[in-house]
Amino acid sequence: MPYVFLQTFGCQMNVADSNDVAERLFTHGFQTIGDPGKADLIIVNTCSVREHAERRARVRIAEFCRMKKPGAQLWVIGCMAERLGERLMKDIPGVDRVIGARSLGRIDEITARAFPGQHADFTGIETTGEASDFISIMRGCNNYCSYCIVPYVRGPESSIPAATIIDAVRKKAGQGVREVTLLGQNVNSYCDAGIDFPDLIREVAAVEGIKRIRFTTSHPKDCCEKLIRTIADEPKCCRHIHLPVQSGSDRVLSLMNRRYSAADYRDRIMMIRSLLPKADITTDFLVGFPSETDADFEATLALVEEVRFTGAFMFAYSVREGTVAANFVDTVADAIKRRRLKMLIDRQTAITKEKYSAMVGRKVQLMIRGRQLKRDRLWMARDYGCKRALIACDDVQAGTILQAEVVRTSGMTIICERTAP
Ligand code: SAH
Ligand code: SF4
Ligand code: F3S
Predict the structure, then answer these.
(1) Closest ligand 2 atom, CA of 258?
(2) Which of 107, 297, 355, 359 has its CA 20 to 30 A from that of 288?
(3) What is the reported pTM?
(4) Which residue has a Cα nearest atom 1 of ligand 1?
(5) Ligand 1 centroid vs 117 CA: distance in angstroms?
């Protein structure tokens, strides 16, 4: 049987794509292997969102070129593959094939041609074996935020038919998945023949075996009250909203083409906090956007103080060739970008720690994810919001939901003890 080694960079959508690709390969007789040097096929699923992500992938791909055994193939797939196409094969000799994010539907046909005569003994097909899994509900993006490469590499927005999604969720539930995370660049604009995103959540919640539902990402411009009310009414929905704000300055938000103001964003936060007072709200920040002044950055810091996010992903702006912002000339110096990013990270990290510390003594509902490999009896879990947890207990398995109390925190993890249900 041929072996495949797959490495994934980028967002959860790429993780979902990699899982789909792996599943397709299993039907062609492949098994996964942990050692790339022994694989017949090495696949690197790439991200283009920042230059750094591309650089890391290139380093890894070059390593794999040196490592791969004679006769093995190296395929580069995903967003950077879409952006650069066959140019990558010239840049990095040893890459055998480039399959862009928008062509992954052809993976079956490509595999059948590259590895003819392979087919699975269906009794041996692997599953990821995880209790929590991702499901893409949409492809692409139409928002064209001026800094972002995603619409170019992922193409226009389209919603996957609800029936297809529900079938996929049922199948996963049958394989032991208990929590699904619904993925799209802007899940709020999901629409399939009159079924909107809140309707889809209700359909997913009705699938037997599914105990928890998460989703990402909500664009603030489309995050509506119907969605928040649906979450509040549906106990399977986790209490976590990821609502990327990017900046606290109206001038910068407008240049970014985000189509909301800082005041609109604050209104959304107020609406969420009034309907879901205990929800974790997390965000993304992008600092050092062209022309960002100290005053703009101060506005971002003011928003951080005011909203007190549970957590945030924070990035320095990276020019992406072909985007509108790539033509903006008044760029911010690297040293200033780095300084602002550090200030922001320091401030937000302190708030995150305060939020976690405030959890000590509280009751939480955990779902077990899997074993913490380093220590016996210790399990990794996730609370009803976005927090990672560790808990020592027996007689549980991935997917078990249990009641616990937070006894202390360690970095960005809550350490819990089991309590009576
Ligand atoms: N669809 C999601 C974001 C997907 S990209 C949304 O609209 O919120 C994830 C994050 O990467 C973005 O929120 C942004 O903060 C960051 N990002 C995107 N393009 C970037 C760039 N050119 N430089 C730095 N960070 C970027
Ligand atoms: Fe990029 Fe904006 Fe689309 Fe998000 S909504 S993927 S930031 S263009
Ligand atoms: Fe995701 Fe990176 Fe592509 S963030 S959509 S893998 S460019």
Answers:
(1) 2
(2) 355
(3) 0.96
(4) 185
(5) 42
